[in-house]
Amino acid sequence: MDLKKYLAEKKRVIDGALEKYLPEVEGPARDLVRAMRYSLFAGGKRLRPILCIASAEAVGGRQEAVLPAACALEFIHTYSLIHDDLPAMDDDELRRGMPTSHKVFGEALALLAGDGLLTEAFRLLCSGDLLAHIPPESVVRVVELVAEAAGYKGMVGGQVADIQAEGKPADKETIDFIHSHKTAALITASVVAGAIMAGGDSGQIEALRTYGKGIGLAFQISDDLLDVEGDTEAMGKTAGSDERKGKATYPAVVGLKRSREIQNKLVREAVGALEAFDQRANPLREIAYYIVRRKK
Amino acid sequence: MDLKKYLAEKKRVIDGALEKYLPEVEGPARDLVRAMRYSLFAGGKRLRPILCIASAEAVGGRQEAVLPAACALEFIHTYSLIHDDLPAMDDDELRRGMPTSHKVFGEALALLAGDGLLTEAFRLLCSGDLLAHIPPESVVRVVELVAEAAGYKGMVGGQVADIQAEGKPADKETIDFIHSHKTAALITASVVAGAIMAGGDSGQIEALRTYGKGIGLAFQISDDLLDVEGDTEAMGKTAGSDERKGKATYPAVVGLKRSREIQNKLVREAVGALEAFDQRANPLREIAYYIVRRKK
Fold first, then answer.
1. What is the per-residue pLDDT across B96-125, written as a single tens digit (0 to 9) for each?
2. B160 touching A (Cβ < 8 Å)
């Protein structure tokens, strides 16, 4: 299959749906929605929504049916980036080659744009657009799953560990905790959510959970590696910033060579977990390999 | 009925449930959960969860059945206070007589504690504890309702309008928008959510929505009035701070006398909306009158 074409086509569909689910507004909420949209349309790869759709399709589901949930996952990812970039957090001025939210809209509006995206994600997950296709029993399972992955037991917990590890010598256990919570948790939930909504059986859901955990961690390791080896222009953010900030990263803890070995092993195991799936899981397999070779 | 006793008893039950739903943890999330709990147990009145329970009981529902949802509403209210107090927002050092979250835990942890509470609220709304009593069809309606009330079309939108109105001469339309979005939206959703979960019919739900809007706005007006006339010690926050910050308030726009008149009218209309309800709605009626006379 042509993965590049696949990813571009999915991104086009997702961008259209995001536009539908967060249109510009007039009136007192105009600036807030403008700030929410600025970060939402700042050139993301749409990895989480694509994984959600690809997972649904791998168990026989339809893209249209899970699209609102896929968009909700991108809302949550975008909120986390906005809050992560704030001066009180990573204090980043550049994201995907563009000024960060608080640089454009000020800290208060950036903070509230993040809050607005997170909250709207859960509204979208329980909106009529999703419930027209997915039974409420599955929707509540997805909300619980996604909220747990995004919350203090998942992504937010990972953010705290990330901040607390800054400037200290990190060990493998710490970096595994940070990466599996800060990044892999929401990626795993995206994959599992797609399978739940599409009516996958418990064996399929468990296999996809294993796949999600593997590629989620591999994805964060490639982020770490790109920060060391990557090109500032291609990435749209400044290379080497992890080291300057004293961030706990895989290369810093286990070295470049071992990081690549671990990453390759994770991807092999992720693809291995999909053994029982037919060719409809090929996009998931290709995405796993893509994660290792991506340049931005 | 003895409202004071009623409120104290409900608060006791809710505090017990909050303790159950957010216990202390060890490990990397320890400090985060500590920060979440610090604000959650900082002496709130539990107005939103009490309204949710009282509304459920007014249509024949049971307190135990809606308790997880009631707690989720308090999580959302608490998150909004933490973010509202941040330096980039209202920059408050004192809340309910205690140092605000960022004063105790630093800005990063305060921000993430808010994010964690908001996200956990939605997990709790779709948790097995609620679904053991409430059908998933009702749960998804409640999530959509609460998320809309808390998000950019509701509370977050009101926060933005509040900030943007600061230091400018406000008119009645602006102050009505701010108060109805920043405060009344989540209070209304709390009341309506209780009725939906308890299986209230559409007539009951609409009557309770009218009640919620009325007392929600009346509650924010009493907040404004207390800031002018109240006692710093009783309130646990500094009186007169709205004027110093140039906040848009009812007294500033329409004067003290007219503010009290509007407030009394709102409460009369709110209680009037409950005409068709029997004595099980007495707590809601009493809470409406209490909102006008409260001293903190």
1. 889 999 999 999 999 999 999 999 999 999
2. yes
ipTM value, please give it.
Answer: 0.97
Q: Taking Cα atoms as reference points, which of B39, B32, B111, B38 lies closest to residue A157?
A: B32
Residues B73, B190 contacting (CB under 8 angstroms): yes
Angle (CA) A77-A78-A80 rounded to 5° is 65
pTM metric for this prediction = 0.97
The mean pLDDT value of chain A amounts to: 95
Q: How confident is the model at residue B233 (pLDDT cuts 50, 70, 90)?
A: low
Q: CA B127, CA B125: separation in Å to the nearest integer?
A: 6
User: Tokens at residue B198, please?
Assistant: 């308890």
Domain containing residue B76: CATH number: 1.10.600.10
Interchain contact B167–A (C-beta under 8 A)? no
Q: Choosing among A152, A174, A175, A197, which should be mutated to test the B contact, i.e. which has the most B CBs within 10 A? A: A152
Mutate to test the interface with A, among B24, B25, B122 (most CBs of A within 10 A): B122
The number of distinct structural domains making up chain B is: 1
B88 vs A contacts (CB less than 8 Å): 86, 106-108, 111
**How far is residue B43's CA from residue B37's CA, in Å, rounded to a whole number?**
11
CA closest to A130 among chain B residues: B140
pLDDT digits (tens, 9 = 90+) for A127-151: 999 999 999 999 999 999 999 999 9
Per the CB < 8 A criterion, the answer to whether B221 and B111 are in contact is: no
Q: Domain range spanning residue B210?
A: 3-293
Q: Which of residues 217-236 of A touch B (CB under 8 A)?
A: none
